[in-house]
Amino acid sequence: MIEALYDASGARRWDIAFDAFAEALARSTRHRFGGAMPPAPVVTSYLERLHLADLALATACANGHDAAWEHFVAAYRAPLRRAAGAIAGPAEADDLADALFADLFGLTEREGERRTLLRYYHGRSTLATWLRAVLAQRHVDALRARRNSVPIEANGEGQELAVAAAAGTIEPVDPDRSRLAALLCREVADEVERLVPRDRLRLSFYYRHDLTLAAIGRLLDEHESTVSRQLERTRRHIRAAVERALAERHRLRPADIALALDAAMDAPALGFDALLGAGGAEPAAPDVPAPPRVSTSRKIPPVDSFNGRRAEPTS
Amino acid sequence: MSDERHDREFDGPLRAALRGPDAGAGAGEACPDAERLALYAARELDAGERETLEPHLARCARCQAILAVLVTTDDLAAGAVAPSPLPAAATPTVPVPGELLEPQTTPDGRASAFGRGWWRWVLPLPAAAMAAALYFAVRPAPATAPSFEMAARDTARADHDTAPADRDTARADRDTALLDRDSARASGDTAPADRDTAAAGREKATAPRDEAVVAPKEEARRQAATGTGAAATEQELGEARAEAVQPAEVRTPVTEVTAPAAKARPPAAAARASAPPVTLAAQAEGRIIDLPSTGAPRFRIDAAGRLWTRPESANEAAAGFDAPSAWRPVPLPLPATLRAGACESASVCWVAGRDGLVFRTGNGRDWVRVPSPTTTEIVAILVVPPGRVVLTTVDGTRYETRDNGVTWTAL
């Protein structure tokens, strides 16, 4: 069977030895199933579903095969830059794509072997899909690293609040309102913790990453009306649980609960992250890139280069 | 208190709870690799693996963000320009990825990952319909009344035929509106909170983006000092400098001959191919640029902006690729200082430079001047077979032609 896969992959074109390709398949299988190897039919089915041609190309590039690398560059450089542009925006696209290319090529060595990112490709998705995911991963990591390095003084919102408070231009916060809001927020956080993973994931995509119902549906393989319904159900469930907890555990009267909910509406001013005891909370900006610029086009006639006059258009 | 107000009150705490720090996703738990996340986003994981993965995803803001990026850039990446033209010799049978998201097929021919493919055939239809509508709108008056009436009758019949489809669309819109109402309530009602946090987020997002223009240069300098990374070349520094001048999406497909080979053990040819495209800044420093075509480059522009050719008969092995004797100057119809060039094939090439001069050869020997859309210096040419050429001037304006320079469109 391995021979059939070897033939189907086109590995010979890149001068990949049979044993080397078999090792790539074995590595992919180990990566998928870990230590517990499943029955042979499962492995067979897994291997047959691999993107063999892409795996062969990646293996050849990782081995330093000239023609394979040239093919990879010619085929993937432009799409990679376009994808980087879509993910990180035009200003950062080239840096993102170039840095990835450097790592794909593998400019560092360990124990005499070139360390290339392509070794982490296992053929389960297409090479293109994998590259896009790697780009997204790097972009998100860069954003998070940048965020973590923003000094406290640079937090304009906090600074403005502090200045306004010092100048006496804002009303002092009612301590009772703050206490009730903090109580409510902690209960909400506890309830979120108790959610089943899929409900929590749906809620996170909606509230943390500001994804649309359709986008959440695409990720979770649900219809957007299902997403909408499930979000509503989860929200009601949390609300009921929180109100119950506030009444039973904290002995709050209905009026206090209403006050807590009312206070919770002022979340930004009160600093909800602080209320939740979450000092290093991430800012609210969603982790999604800015949309690309839209350009308009107009038809213009050519210009005579030497006298600078615009020639009559010819068609 | 109305339900809507209740929702509004409750969205704030929910948002705060979910936007807090990663809760428990870390603590020694490794994130799934990029391939697995890509498969999750593409819904290609089997049910068991999805279930195994979701507890982590539910608590890991990083993985959620990666998935969010993948799903929100899905359409953007798919809407990008045409696939890279590949040299014929380098394209045996492996399928070329047109887009990172375009339908890819496995060796056994099944569709995979993000692309289901059908939309590629549907998308041209509205464009064709629009073109037809434009044609009817601007075409000269018909010579005879009957033909016009016939056209009107055909149009009416076509309208009638499309009515059921319109009805379906309207129904779908109504369904969507119901969902939107829920969505609008959820997001709109929390507007005060969201607006504040979003504004803060935007402020924070602006600063890093500005820094990003500087950061690559510093990174490149650092790598140059330590001798690591592909960025350890002046070329990358040049790219960073050129960023402000050249639109990001237009890159001259020329290969720099003098790019220093990567340090590890890149084969010479691979290093040449992997070098980032030459940029305005790099050219201004007096680099030599090659016009890539099928096989070895046959044309090059020297630092003084002159065009040279390397006859096919020249023996690379004997003379050496860069041997001066292997290259001959190319006479152009007019004296010109060239700044950019690109080839569509081994024999069809374009060059351009100062004063907006543009030249083209269709046989690899004879160069003719092409009407130019500008008198400004042209610093980049992008050739996308078949027949699309994009010029970029020094001030960043771009012009496109699809008829060998007869007409140009400002982009």
What does the secondary structure layout of this molecule look like, with pairings?
The complex is a heterodimer of chains A (315) and B (411).
Chain A: H1 2-9, H2 18-33, H3 40-48, H4 52-62, H5 66-88, H6 90-105, E1 108-110, E2 113-115, H7 127-148, H8 156-166, H9 175-194, H10 197-207, H11 213-220, H12 224-248, H13 254-264, H14 267-270, H15 272-275, E3 298-300
Antiparallel strand pairs in A: 1-2
Helix pairs in contact in A: 1-4, 4-5, 5-6, 5-7, 9-12, 9-13, 10-12, 11-12
Chain B: H1 3-18, H2 34-41, H3 47-59, H4 61-72, H5 74-78, E1 104-105, E2 111-112, H6 118-122, H7 124-138, H8 145-188, H9 191-226, H10 234-242, E3 255-256, H11 268-274, H12 280-284, E4 289-291, E5 299-301, E6 307-309, H13 316-319, E7 328-329, E8 338-343, E9 349-353, E10 358-361, E11 367-370, E12 378-384, E13 388-393, E14 398-401, E15 408-410
Antiparallel strand pairs in B: 1-2, 3-4, 4-5, 5-6, 6-7, 8-9, 9-10, 10-11, 12-13, 13-14, 14-15
Helix pairs in contact in B: 2-4, 9-10
What brief labels describe this structure?
heterodimer, A: mainly alpha, elongated, B: 411 residues, alpha+beta, 44% helix
Number of strands of chain A: 3
DSSP helix fraction of chain B: 40-55%
What is the C-alpha radius of gyration of chain A, as a whole number of Å?
A: 28 Å
Can you count the helices of chain A? Answer: 15
**Class from secondary-structure proportions of chain A:** mainly alpha
Main sheet summary of chain B: 5 strands, antiparallel
Please trace the helix and strand order of chain B, writing H or E for each element.
Answer: HHHHHEEHHHHHEHHEEEHEEEEEEEEE
The helix-strand sequence of chain A is HHHHHHEEHHHHHHHHHE
Percent of residues in β-strands of chain A: under 5%
Largest sheet of chain A: 2 strands, antiparallel
Oligomer: heterodimer
State mean pLDDT of chain A (0 to 100 scale): 75
Q: How many DSSP helices of chain B?
A: 13
- Strand tally of chain B is 15
What is the 3D shape of chain A? elongated
